[in-house]
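Journal club prep — side note

Before the paper discussion, L.F. wants everyone to see what a predicted structure for a comparable chain looks like in token form. Sequence:
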Amino acid sequence: MSDQHLGVSVRRAQPADVDGLVACSSALFAEDAGTRDPSVSIGWPREFGAERFAAGLGDPTRLLLVADRDGEIVGHLAGAAAEGSAMRPVKVATLVSMYVQPVHRRSGLGERMIAQFSAWAREVGAELAEVTAYSANADAIRFYERNGFANHSVTLRTAL
């Protein structure tokens, strides 16, 4: 599963990519959750990301993609698949996180990663794919809608 376009390849992550995954995840946390959700620890990727990403490399229920430009990781996608339950008896693939450096946005790179995620989800037998985005992140919501996702539920929150 590899894809080369405009000097950026999209491929499965390897052990040597863990630092790049942590860097992308840190940038995502700072840009997205860091500006929209004060309950999220934006230091999580630096503290726990390397261990989490390394564990996911060999896990068949997880997908880690990197966007690689001449050895520099300029984006990532993390996905996970989960078996259904008695209440919801379908296998679901969740797009857990995705980040593309600003200079590479609007180049089709995100769409390429989504296409590889969707292909992987079908390969592992998922019947549904889902992603969560902050309601205030209109750009992300539009991006996911352009790539076939639709609103399904709304989470409401209050501080206590």
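L.F.'s comment for the group: The mean pLDDT is 93. Keep this in mind when we get to the figures.
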